[in-house]
Structures are given as structure tokens and as C-alpha cells.
């Protein structure tokens, strides 16, 4: 899947003269993360000729979270905390990764940072609608 992603991505500009958008970069980063090639994904995103969006950093954060890569997650969160400082999800992912790694002091520091800027973890909710329509 990664090789095909690279092939299509590279063909955009070389074969078709199409400049890739951030969404195209995101697809390649996603493929790299899913293949477990996190350091390549980090390098790819870090060296993009266009400014990475929160969404593409989120791709890397998800990959780091899935792999339990605390250092990559910290690298990514350092950027996400600047881009979207009020996104509680980023803080919670980072705190949870620290906790899973037994790095309790750092997990507490992330939670304290949330509290200092007035953020609260939003409780998750879900429901099932079992309404049946009869005609």
C-alpha cells in the first residue's frame, strides 16, 4: 500500500503537473503510519513544502498512539498544542500515552497544563436510537 501511495503521489507532479495539496500529503503519511513506518512519516510531514495542518499532525499522533511511541507523540503534540491549543483530545492522548508508559509525572504535567488554561476533558457519550416507524 505504501509503495502504491508513493507512486501515485509522485506521479501527480511529474506525470500530470498537479501540485499536491495537504490532503495528498496526509494520505501518504497515513499509509506510512499504517505500515509502521513512523520515522518516515515524521520526516515526510516535517519536510513538506506546505505548512502541515492540524489534521496531518493528527495522523502522526494517531500513528504514534497506536504504536505507543511516546517520543513521536510528544514531538507532534508540541506542534498541535500551538496550532489548536483548545483541543482537549490532543492533551488526553498525550497524557494517556505517558501514563501507559509509566511516566506519571509527565502525564500529570499534561493534565495540569490543561487545567492551567481552563480546559476540561469532555465526557464521551453515545446512544442508540431504536425507534421503529410503522406505516
UniProtKB/TrEMBL annotation:
* SUPFAM superfamilies reported for this sequence: TPR-like (SSF48452)
Q: Where are the PPR repeats?
A: 87-121
An individual GO BP term? RNA modification
Instruction: Note whether Coiled coil occurs among the keywords.
Output: no
Is Repeat one of the keywords UniProt gives this record? yes
Gene3D superfamilies noted in UniProt: Tetratricopeptide repeat domain
PROSITE patterns per record: PPR
Q: Which Pfam families match?
A: E_motif, PPR
Q: Which UniProt keywords apply?
A: Repeat
Q: Show the GO MF annotations.
A: RNA binding
Q: Which InterPro entries match?
A: E_motif, PPR_At4g14850-like_plant, PPR_rpt, TPR-like_helical_dom_sf
The record's annotation in PANTHER family points to: PENTATRICOPEPTIDE REPEAT-CONTAINING PROTEIN, REPEAT (PPR) SUPERFAMILY PROTEIN, PUTATIVE-RELATED
What is the name of this protein? Pentatricopeptide repeat-containing protein
